[in-house]
């Protein structure tokens, strides 16, 4: 039998899951607390028991998504793998999230976070992106990848897989993302590697 704390945590997670889904589908401004309550199958009062406002829900989702992506990227970057394999793992994991946890990436890529994060950056310009820039800068300094602007290198690493994900979601391509992963990696690696590697 679950404790009150466990039920409360479960309800809070359900509210966050449903809010994320609604923010992706409708946008932040077109989603109300009432919509979140209806989707979560709980009362509006129950929402306010867990959160003070829709903005608080959105900020918590933003922070948890940033943390999820940062932790994933750091785990890969901190591994004992070669630079080439780390880049491959970063790409493969982005494509895997798009397949397995689509709403997380949709939330990261499609929701206008500046609507509720005052003076903030979008997820795609925040800590996870900076983590990748720092990783790539360090790899350049070690001579493991070619020297270039770190923004360009990070956009190269993320932009190609992210654009592929978006055209998959738009049904422009029909094959599973897994079928493209090696080609995407080769494309990114060819842009980042030192010419003779």
Provide tags for this entry.
197 residues, mainly alpha, Arc Repressor Mutant, subunit A, Tetracycline Repressor, domain 2, 2 domains, elongated, HTH_TetR, DNA-binding, DNA binding, DNA-bd_HTH_TetR-type_CS
Description:
- It contains 9 helices and no strands.
- With 197 residues, it is mainly α.
- The longest helix has 24 residues, at 54-77.
- The mean pLDDT is 89.
Question: How many discrete structural domains?
Answer: 2
> How much helix, percentage-wise, in residues?
55-70%
Mean pLDDT: 89
- What is the CATH H-level superfamily of the largest domain? Tetracycline Repressor, domain 2
CATH topology (fold) name of the largest domain: Tetracycline Repressor, domain 2
| Biggest sheet details | none
Give the topology string: H per helix, E per strand. Answer: HHHHHHHHH
Pfam family, one: TetR_N
Domain HTH tetR-type: 9-69
DNA-binding region: 32-51
GO molecular function, one term: DNA binding
């Amino acid at each position: 039998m679950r404790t009150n704390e466990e039920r409360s945590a479960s309800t809070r997670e359900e509210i966050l899951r449903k809010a994320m889904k609604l923010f992706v589908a409708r946008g932040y401004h077109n989603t109300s607390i009432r919509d979140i309550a209806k989707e979560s199958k709980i009362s509006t009062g129950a929402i306010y028991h867990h959160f003070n406002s829709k903005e608080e829900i959105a900020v918590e989702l933003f922070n948890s998504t940033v943390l999820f992506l940062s932790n994933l990227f750091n785990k890969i970057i901190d591994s004992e793998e070669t630079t080439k394999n780390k880049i491959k793992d970063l790409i493969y994991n982005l494509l895997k999230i798009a397949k397995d946890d689509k709403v997380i990436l949709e939330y990261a890529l499609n929701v206008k976070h500046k609507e509720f994060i005052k003076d903030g950056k979008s997820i795609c310009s925040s800590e996870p992106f900076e983590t990748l820039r720092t990783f790539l800068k360090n790899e350049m300094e070690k001579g493991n990848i070619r020297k270039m602007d770190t923004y360009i290198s990070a956009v190269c690493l993320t932009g190609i897989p992210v654009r592929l994900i978006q055209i998959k979601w738009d049904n422009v391509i029909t094959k599973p993302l897994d079928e493209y992963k090696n080609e995407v990696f080769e494309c990114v690696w060819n842009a980042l590697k030192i010419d003779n590697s």
